[in-house]
Design goal:
The structure holds two protein chains of two kinds. Helix content of chain A is 27%, strand content 41%. Chain A is α+β, with helices and mostly antiparallel strands. Chain B has five helices and no strands. Classes of the chains: A alpha+beta, B mainly alpha.
Chain lengths: 197, 153
């Protein structure tokens, strides 16, 4: 009859091997998790707004159309679940803090909009400026002309503020109790033009 | 009576510290970043407790002396946390990325890990005792086999 278990480091070999397996298993879990964590961190830094453009058009009936388009570039391997898109446009009177609000557009949460992984999404928002707002734009043009600055409806210095918010991938957590994790998977991109005083 | 520590004891102690650290590292990392960890334990404290006991068993097996086994629970917990910190820094170290949640380690670990440390140590101590029982059982079986009367031919 043979001895049941020879030893490594004074321990039964089977027990020692199981210990090593346990250790390697958890090391693998840790590395896999750390790699995912790295991908998420990198994705957050790669996702960007590109090619922002202003759209200004005067329709045949004289209605002014002000719009804004931008591309959300998502080179990461994760989808972005869009939670909100917010844009507004205004004309800032250079002489003081007088501001003429022209347009705004807001997309709320839970409408199912997504930016697919490894793809770009073009977002275009616009607004027809009519009535009192349109009259204020004309007033701005006339006032500018009186102080020697000639503008047309197409060349008025429209200011834009665009904000894009979303969540990266399907990494769900408790957004209130585990709010320290929000920063890791939250995508907040902003673009402003002409908003400075 | 003084306990003499031999070379084999030190080898067992070091091995226990190194081999038991990865489970602690994963559990600590998972507790901090549960949404991206695999497999997801989801901050389940019962699972953490059971895994802490399981982690302590090898420390009991590898240490001949119970006192060293108990000390190794503390050393592998510390080593595990150091490893977890490395994994937390992984995006920065491996890919040169800026950690998107700076200061999180200090805040989250200090906020959430008091209970974790208790579980690691408490579960580890239970595991060490279990491991020592297993080791004794192996030794007894070995002695029984070695000293068994050989059948007459």
């Amino acid at each position: 009859m043979e001895m049941s278990g020879k030893t490594w480091f004074g321990v039964n070999r089977v027990a020692f091997l199981l210990t090593v397996v346990l250790s390697i298993l958890f090391l693998s879990f840790s590395v896999a998790s750390a790699v995912t964590y790295s991908k998420v961190t990198l994705a957050q830094q790669e996702i960007a707004l590109e090619d922002p453009q202003q759209i200004v058009d005067v329709k045949q009936n004289g209605t002014l159309f002000v719009g804004f388009s931008v591309k959300v570039a998502n080179p990461s391997e994760f989808d972005i679940r869009i939670s909100s898109i917010n844009w507004y446009s205004l004309i800032r009177n250079g002489t003081d803090a007088d501001v003429i609000y022209l347009a705004s557009n807001y997309t709320a949460e839970n409408v199912g909009l997504r930016v697919e992984a490894r793809s770009d999404a073009d977002i275009t928002l616009g607004w027809y400026v009519t009535g009192t707002d349109r009259a204020e734009v004309n007033g701005f043009i006339n006032y500018s002309a009186s102080i020697g600055q000639d503008y047309t409806l197409l060349t008025v210095p429209y200011s834009h503020s665009f904000e894009f918010n979303g969540w990266l991938g399907d990494f769900k957590h408790d957004y209130y109790r585990e709010n320290y994790l929000n920063g890791m998977v939250r995508i907040d991109l902003t673009y402003t033009y002409g908003m400075e005083e | 009576m003084s306990v003499r520590i031999e070379r084999e004891d030190i080898v067992g102690f070091v091995l226990a510290t190194l081999l038991c650290a990865p489970p602690v590292a994963f559990l600590a990392f998972e507790f901090m970043l549960p949404s991206i960890s695999f497999p997801p334990i989801g901050k389940n404290l019962l699972a953490v407790m059971l895994l802490s006991i399981l982690t302590g068993v090898p420390a009991g097996l590898l240490n001949r002396k119970t006192s060293l086994g108990i000390v190794s629970v503390f050393t592998y917990t510390i080593a595990g946390y150091m490893l977890a910190f490395l994994f937390y820094m992984f995006p920065s170290v491996a890919y040169g990325a800026t950690i998107s949640i700076p200061g999180l380690y200090y805040v989250a670990f200090l906020r959430f890990t008091i209970i974790l440390v208790f579980l690691f140590v408490f579960g580890g101590l239970i595991g060490v005792v279990s491991g020592q029982y297993l080791r004794d059982s192996f030794d007894r079986e070995e002695t029984k086999v070695l000293w068994a009367e050989k059948p007459k031919e």
